[in-house]
Amino acid sequence: MAPASRAPRRVAALPSWLVSQVALQAQRLVGEAGVRRHEFSVLAALAEDGPASQAELGRRVWMDRSDLHGVLNGLEHDGLVARVRDKQDRRRNVVRLSPAGAQRLRELEARAAAAQDALLAPLSEDEQRELRRLLTRLVEAHRGGG
Length: 146
What we know:
The chain is mostly helical and 146 residues long. Helices cover 66% and strands 8% of the residues. The protein contains seven helices and three strands; from the N terminus they run αααβααββαα. The protein has helices at residues 9-12, 15-32, 37-49, 54-61, 65-77, 99-120, 125-142, and strands at 52-53, 81-85, 93-97. The mean pLDDT is 93.
């Protein structure tokens, strides 16, 4: 009888199962590093693509409007982002990254990088590059449900 902690061979051989197991470990390591995905995603999107309406920002980070609202409330409370009225359309807010938000993003990037290093430590540098290449290829091929 197989130990309870091991998946049956038929399951453990499935690429989808393997990817999910690695994803669970990645989430654990990133979480332990103090990186919250939504916070990191919003700060990174603002840093990379500039200020945005809340609707546009939600599309950038693939986040539901109500979830984004909660994340932005926390980030704004911490002084990491500012919501200001759009000069072109006073009915909407534009979200901007604050200097404190840029600093927080640098801290999160360092923590996330350390978590990635821990996750990929069993692989050589060449294997790590190949894994990133293959995962990127899969993500791009299946983006948008295609």
